[in-house]
Amino acid sequence: MRKYSVFAVAREALRGHKGWEPQWVSPEPRQEYDVIIVGGGGHGLGAAYYLAKEHGITNVAVIEKGWLGGGNTGRNTTIIRSNYLYDESMDIYEHSLKLWEGLSQELNYNVMYSPRGVMMLSHNIHDRQSFKRHIHANRLHGIDNEWLTPEQAKAFCPPLDISATARYPINGAALQRRGGTARHDAVAWGYARAASDRGVHIIQNCEVKGIRRGPDGAVTGVETSRGFIGAKKIAVSASGHNSVIMSMADVRVPLHSVPLQALVSEPMKPIFPCVVMSNTVHAYISQSDKGELVIGAGTDQYNSYSQTGGLQIITHTLDAICELFPMFRRVKMMRQWGGITDNTPDRSAIQGVTPVKNLFVNCGWGTGGFKATPGSAHLFAHLIARGEPHRLAAGLTLDRFRTGRLIDEAAAAAVAH
Amino acid sequence: MLLIHCPYCEEERSELEFRHGGDAHIARPTNIADISDEEFEEFFFLRDNPKGLIFERWRHVHGCGRFFNAARDTVSDKFYASYKAGEPKPDLPGISPATEKTVETYEATEGTAK
Question: What is this model's ipTM?
Answer without folding.
Answer: 0.90
